[in-house]
Amino acid sequence: MKKFKVCALLMTGIMAAALFAGCGKKDAPASSDKKLVIGVSLPTQREERWVRDKETMEAYAKEKGVDLKIQVADTDVAQQASQVENLISQGIDVLVLAPADASASAQSVEKAHAAGIKVISYDRLIANCDLDLYMSFDNEKVGELQGEYITKKAPKGNYIVMAGAPTDNNATLFKKGAMKYIQPLVDKGDIKVVTDLAVDNWEPTNALKIVENSLTANSNKVDAILAPNDGTAGAAIQALSAQGLAGKIPVTGQDSELTAAQRIVQGTQSMTIFKDTRELGKAAIDAAIKFAKGESVESNGKVNNGKMDVPSSLLAAQVVDKDNLDKVLIDSGYLKKDDVYKK
Ligand code: GAL
């Protein structure tokens, strides 16, 4: 009874305070009317997938009635840092940040936190800082899928192993996953890794040089190429094609880009990985809205970033090759049949 009274008194007090607060902010819109502002910083638009992330977020934010401010950094670390500062100064409620450089972006996160802004690390993990959420795919699994696929196609022989940009934590995870399948066969003496290099900036022209040089150094005796994404796969296939070898050895990929799907249909690229970035983009906007409203956000695990176990939400990825391409990429509406099969 006594408790109830205290409670009732408290409620009256809170209501009075709320009314009072309402009187003071006469001209300000009621808090529920205020449009939430979400800041997004993307590392690039060079790969098709990042173009899609941007488009998805823009469309979904519109649907949800939130104000979205997107900046794109074109892989430039300094440019991304200043774009994030700019977003912070524009008064964003939450920051969604896909880093061009996992380590360098920690500073941007600290600045956002100092301004009371929660940060979601998007697709790529930001290292050595406090993070509110990490949203991505199961990236080690992506590498495992690539490694499993290529070692089945080429259980023996000379391998060119490429990794993505050293500044991208995903690149480390992709390679780690793939090597779970490749390394045991190297140890057994069945596979020889003749080239093992990272592709700076994920730049296809860098991948082209790596593959051209390796083909020359090995007198074209290469039996498989682990390419970490579709951009680098395209470059590898270009180098193979110049030697009349396109379609003769397995090449992996990732991202389900249109040109990769076309190469799979033509038989020059063996596989790609489907990561439905439409889902990731929407999930990030939903999470950002919750954070902006002061609500908690669900996660399905933790990933350590060197400083903390970051609450993480990881989506599944899937192998795509000529056997399931229509079903996975076309039936899902990710790619159009006419585009994929364009002559
Ligand atoms: C990775 C991303 C991949 C690929 C690559 C190059 O971080 O997970 O999907 O796009 O960057 O941008």
From TrEMBL:
Keywords: Signal. It comes from the Bacteria. Residues 1-21 form the signal peptide. Residues 38-295 form the Periplasmic binding protein domain. The keyword NADP does not apply. Pfam families: Peripla_BP_4. GO terms for cellular component: outer membrane-bounded periplasmic space. PROSITE patterns: PROKAR_LIPOPROTEIN. It is found in: Cell envelope. GO terms for molecular function: carbohydrate binding. This is Substrate-binding domain-containing protein.
